[in-house]
Prior knowledge:
Elements: H1 12-22, H2 37-40, H3 46-57, E1 60-62, E2 68-70, E3 76-79, H4 90-106, H5 126-135, H6 143-152, E4 157-159, E5 172-177, E6 180-185, H7 192-207, E7 218-221, H8 232-246, H9 261-275, H10 279-289, H11 304-312, H12 321-332, H13 340-349
Parallel strand pairs: 3-7, 4-6
Antiparallel strand pairs: 1-2, 5-6, 5-7
Amino acid sequence: MTVANRPSSADPKKLLTKEFKAVGLKKDVFQILPEWWEEALGHPSGVYEVRGFVAKHFGLEIGPNGQLRQRLMPHACFKTRTDIDITAVASARAMATAVARIVAAATVGTRPAGANTPWSGGLPSAADLRRTVLDNGRPWVSLSDLLAVCWEHGIPVVYLPSLPVSKPKMEGMVTFCGSRPVILVTKKAEQPAWMLFVLAHEMGHVALRHLNECDGGSIVDEKVSEDGVADPQEIAANAYALHLLTGGEKSVINLKSLMKPEPLAKEARRFGHKYHIDPGHVDLNAVRNTMVNGTNPWGLKTNLWGLGTNALKHLDHEPASSVMCRNALRQNVDLDALSDDSFEFLERLGVL
């Protein structure tokens, strides 16, 4: 008698890969799962354990059919400049929100010891905040200053440029989680000058009370820029950022003539010391606003952004954005409050 072979069950990794793709995650998402995932898939219930981890840490949920699906999120204010469909950033927003929840829950301080650092309820005006930083002997408002201010006011800052999503992601976002705002910068900006304006802009949304302070309420900035801005809240957040960084009077800087990277860095340093503006911001602001023969050169072949990026290399060395953000986070969260899985997850994402 011939006995037919029983059909083999579906490969659990292929099954999960298909589900990940359906919710907008990349194939390499397995690289940031905890070490136990591969061994777990060798057991009948393993796929359910992995789904449970992904649902919690990626901001998803498990549907009635037992598979991963997008979670219904609270209302968000999407700030988009292109013809992008706002649903395209759903995966990025969901995962960023899940990371924000983990960090917010572990945020601690020293007053009183071991207790959560309370959300102060607001941020100072740009003028007051700038004055405080300069009065403390700082030459200008730097990225390290902004990070310190945010954490002191109970606002975690998370640098998250490597979201494993297959669809577009935002550059910056602020969300209300665990009774506090959390700022996430997802723009890849290892040079602090590139991150400086993005963080100051998101701080502007908080200071100006644009954020809906309900759990999960968010402002999602697809692109943080001064170009082509029509949204009143974006205009206001930009104005806050520029006043904070430059004092307002020197918010638009331009070059009288094009120059090579090293002389540009030297001029940015001189200008920065004179007007108390971070030289990196001077550099990027100048190349953005410079006109050639009365014309903005971005439509020409002149690569001013390349010039600005190369000039940054000649400025005083600063730690990378990721290093500063990780250090600040480690100093302000209770690492013991994180589960082993969450700790490893944040490490693999580069958050810790």
